[in-house]
Amino acid sequence: MSATQRLKEAALTALVALALAFPLLGFQTTDTGDGYITRFSWVAMATAAAFVGRILLGLVPQRFHLHQYATRYTALPGGRAVTLAAAALILFAIVLPFSPFGSRRTIDLATLALIYVILGWGLNVVVGLAGLLDLGYVAFYAVGAYSFALAAEWYGLSFWEMLPVAGIVAAIAGILLGLPVLRLRGDYLAIVTLGFGEIVRIVLNNWSAVTNGPNGIGDIPRPTVFGMPISPGAPAGVTSFNHFFGVEYDPLQRLVWLYYVCLAAALVINWFSLRIRRLPVGRAWEALREDEIACRALGLNPHTIKLTAFATGAMIGGFAGAMFAAKQGFISPESFNFQESATVVSIVVLGGMGSQLGVALAAVILATLPEFGREFAQYRMLFFGAAMVAIMIWRPRGLFTMRAPSVRLDQK
Amino acid sequence: MTRDTLLTVDNLSMRFGGIVAVNDVSFTAYGHEITAIIGPNGAGKTTVFNCLTGFYRPSGGHLALNRDGKSLRLERLKGHRIVRDAGVVRTFQNVRLFAGMTVLENLVVAQHAVLTRASYYNFGGLLGLKSYRNAERAAIACAREWLDRIELTARADEPAGNLPYGAQRRLEIARAMCTGPRLLCLDEPAAGLNPHESADLARFLVAIRDRFGIGILLIEHDMSVVMGISDHIIVLNYGQKIADGAAAAIRHDPTVIAAYLGEEEDG
Questions:
Q1: Three-state SS for B28?
Q2: Are A257 and A229 a contacting pair, CB within 8 Å?
Q3: Of A327, A246, A259, the residue nearest A102 (C-alpha)
Q4: DSSP conformation class of A237
Q5: Which of A22, A297, A412, B175 lies 20 to 30 Å from A55, alpha-carbon distance?
Q6: Confidence grade of residue A63 (pLDDT, cut at 50, 70, 90)
């Protein structure tokens, strides 16, 4: 590329930067005077930075352009490294509460991260395997959480009784969403699912007679230890965990127990996801993602495949919702806004669609990042955006691009 | 030898608005035979395929497939049912493989119906029942046979999208065969192949016909393939059938020559 060409390109970049920076950086609202002050020096700096940055980027030799590696289909290298990494992660997760990091805050955060891991794996079925972009996934999370919270409030049902029911109710919601969108694909599907997510949230917000509206539902029971609540005292006829084992009550015990419940659930769901990929339905999902017309031509019914994908993904979302309700003890529609859906989609995209380990890592990163970033809350979104752009440039297929075949020729 | 009638197409018509893509076409395809459908571009060949395989609903006419003495009406079956119940399967003009999945997976996906039944609609498979494990092993064995036939055994665990074009073509045919069809519809299988590959393909198709005794319906422009292996040729032009017969007769049919080369001027 010639020098003039480089300059031209850099000028164009600077122009775009100028157009963006002028409204975004050029004005700051204040509570005195005109209501705003101008800071055009910032605009000038941003424009100059874009100009120089583009020129510098152009000087990077071709062979360092990483994206050329990312576009081909990659066969799976070294399954052993993945297994080792996964084993190390699980081991770390098991000992975490008893490690020096096992403070109240980290355990709480780790529980939240596990819930996001489960959500990520659930959405991974829909987006990663079946290739159906679902932007309203939070709806199933909400359905799971609310079905547990309401059943607890009305009928006094416990977490363990409601966990499977929450999954089933969410799966039914998944089929209800799936039915009208069977013929939709790509962007159109994304828009409808986005609407579905909002509908669920708005219904929860406004149907006050049932959901208590924006005030939410409180006093959601915590999971018991095989029927024994973790509490200093217990109602008549019930033995508390602390009494049974003769340990002193400590609020941390509840957290640790919930953490292990979530960890166990995550492991079960991981086993389920890995297994279902090797079943006919799992392969059909992936085939649907690759080519819907070819699916039909081979006698696979695309409608059934889509519905099973939606139902399975929703069911996992429902489990996560019940666990979230048990963790918070209080839920309101506020917790199930579009931001949540966007986060879960980011987890799946960032992690590498279809990769269990990648999704888990991305979930941990995205769930804990806001907590660690509290000090620079102002720049959090900036950092997040930059990270996403970087991923899209260098690893457009996600952190982990390899895909393990569901079946190999020489397996025994 | 008596011919067993496999497919009877009666007065098939397909209109798109005012355009008549297929106009009143009738023909018969037989088991143990390769039936070629030829004709200039836009003659309506692929439209016939799309009607046969449920991608279009015909505007008129009947499509009857004989299976075990019963006659199935293809135009009344849903797209995916045509493969399962009638055993009619197709390939595409532009290869449609599951590019991100491995070669072997492509062949196993095609055996979906059998595997789903063996896994008790996946629930049995989830529990790891023996019946599913056995069925999967059988599916892999079947896939391996096809891999050997199309000489792709060594690349079984590679993504199908990485294969060279000719191999992708062969894989698509093998994948269609893994559904266990009675009528195999191939839409320009030799397109983009060099003469050597085309000759290989022709031998492959003859081998499939002789080994499995199924009917093959073939759309093809490569006349060396068509004339060499077809038991029977149907010629379409502007949506109408203009000739029907054995290769030798078609080659010298004046209407066919006119359709391909244009009419001779009076002189």
A1: strand
A2: no
A3: A259
A4: T
A5: A22
A6: low
Ramachandran angles phi, psi of B73, nearest 5°: -95, 105
Interface check for A12 against chain B (CB to CB < 8 A): the answer is: no
In this structure, the strands spanning B70-73 and A36-38 are unpaired
**Cα angle A408, A411, A412; round to 5:** 160
Could you give the CA distance from residue B249 to residue B234 in angstroms, rounded to a whole number? 11
d(CA A162, CA A323): 10
With vertex at residue B198, the alpha carbon angle to CA A296 and CA B30, rounded to the nearest 5 degrees, is: 55
Say if residues A295 and A284 touch (Cβ distance below 8 Å).
yes
Look at residue A251 and tell me whether its pLDDT is greater than 70.
Answer: yes
Q: Which long-range contacts (CB under 8 A, 24 or more apart) does B142-148 make?
A: B142/B107, B142/B111, B142/B178, B143/B104, B143/B107, B143/B108, B143/B111, B143/B178, B144/A409, B146/B107, B146/B174, B146/B177, B146/B178, B147/A409, B147/B103, B147/B104, B147/B107, B147/B174
Q: How far is A296 from chain B (nearest CA, A)?
A: 5
Q: What angle do CA A177, A181, A182 make, to 5 degrees?
A: 115
Query: In degrees, to the nearest 5, what angle opens at C-alpha A48 toward C-alphas A44 and A54?
Result: 150
Q: Which residues of chain A are within 8 Å of residue B126 when distances are taken between CB atoms?
A: 272, 275-276, 279
B7: left (phi over 0), alpha (psi -120 to 50) or beta: beta
Amino acid at A308: T
Q: What per-residue confidence (pLDDT) applies to A61?
A: 67
Put simply, the answer to whether A73 touches B157 (Cβ < 8 Å) is no
Question: Which of B122, B137, B186 to probe the A interface (max A CBs under 10 A)?
Answer: B122
**Which residues of chain B fall short of a pLDDT of 70?**
1, 263-267
Contact A104, A255 (CB under 8 A): yes
The whole-chain average pLDDT of chain A stands at 87
- Measure the CA–CA gap between B187 and B184, rounded to whole angstroms: 10
Test the A interface: residue of B90, B102, B140 with most A CBs within 10 Å: B102
Task: Say what the ipTM of the complex is.
Answer: 0.92
Identity of the residue in A286, A301, A408 whose CB atom sits nearest the CB atom of B157:
A408
Q: Chain B contacts of A300, Cβ < 8 Å? A: 80, 109, 112
Could you tell me if A327 lies within 8 Å of chain B, comparing CB atoms? no
d(CA A263, CA B80): 41
- Test A290 with B98 for CB contact under 8 angstroms: yes
Does the beta-carbon distance from B125 to A279 stay under 8 Å?
yes
Interatomic CA distance for residues A209 and A230, integer angstroms: 32
In the numeric block, which tokens belong to residue A366?
């995205």
Q: Closest CB to B112: pick one of A275, A299, A405.
A: A299
**Residue type present at position B15:** R
Separation of CA A289 from chain center: 20
Q: How many CB atoms lie within 10 A of CB B10?
A: 14
The interface residues of chain A toward chain B in range 47-86, judged by CB-CB distance below 8 A, are 72-75
The count of CB pairs under 8 A between chains A and B is 124
DSSP tag of A128:
I
Please report the pLDDT score of residue B265 as a whole number: 61
Asked if residues A345 and A333 have their Cβ atoms less than 8 Å apart, the reply is no
Kindly report, residue by residue over A209-237, the tens digit of the pLDDT: 999 999 999 999 999 888 888 877 767 77
Smallest CA–CA distance, residue A182 to chain B, in Å, is 15
